[in-house]
Amino acid sequence: MLQVDGGTPSAYLIWSGTERKFALLDGQTWGIGRGEGCAVDLQNRAVSRLHALIERRESGDYFLVDLGSRNGSFINGRRGSEPAQLHDDDHLVFAEQELVFHYPAAEVSETIPPVADSRDLPTSALLTQA
């Protein structure tokens, strides 16, 4: 598992059937394609030079954005023509290249219940007494 600052697990892609990982550590967007400068370099003629992007939004969520590629981008078997939110263990296909998106931190954040703000406790206690 990749980690940022030795603690928080970070997102990454793994090339299906291999151990090759593409870390999504620094930045807000990562290019996917066969062109120079793509963070995820897929050397396959059916993949566009700049095929798609993975984008991290301010909320911390990751999205896949197809850039009008001829052969499309697929998430779990569905063509992604609009930006689509990624979840841990989503299968992404670009031409014949399959990658798996991993974001272990998302699982942790979804299971932690929201903490009530202690400043609201006296007010909520008054409302329940009325």
Describe this structure in words.
There is one protein chain. By secondary structure, the chain is mainly β. The chain is globular, with a radius of gyration of 19 Å. It is 13% helix and 35% strand. The chain is built from two helices and 13 strands, in the order E-E-E-E-E-E-E-E-E-E-E-E-E-H-H. The longest helix has 9 residues, at 121-129. The strands form three sheets. Strands 4-3-13-12-9-10 form a six-stranded antiparallel β-sheet, with no helix packed on it. A five-stranded mixed β-sheet has the order 6-5-7-8-11, with no helix packed on it. Strands 1-2 form a two-stranded antiparallel ribbon.
SSE order and pairing:
Elements: E1 3-4, E2 8-9, E3 12-15, E4 21-23, E5 29-33, E6 40-41, E7 52-56, E8 62-66, E9 73-75, E10 78-79, E11 84-85, E12 90-94, E13 97-102, H1 104-111, H2 121-129
Parallel strand pairs: 5-6
Antiparallel strand pairs: 1-2, 3-4, 3-13, 5-7, 7-8, 8-11, 9-10, 9-12, 12-13
Short account of what is shown:
This protein is mainly beta and 130 residues long.
Percent of residues in helices comes to 10-25%
Structural class: mainly beta
Task: Kindly state the number of beta strands.
Answer: 13
Give a quick account of the main beta sheet: strands, pairing sense, barrel closure: 6 strands, antiparallel
CATH fold name: Tumour Suppressor Smad4
Shape: globular
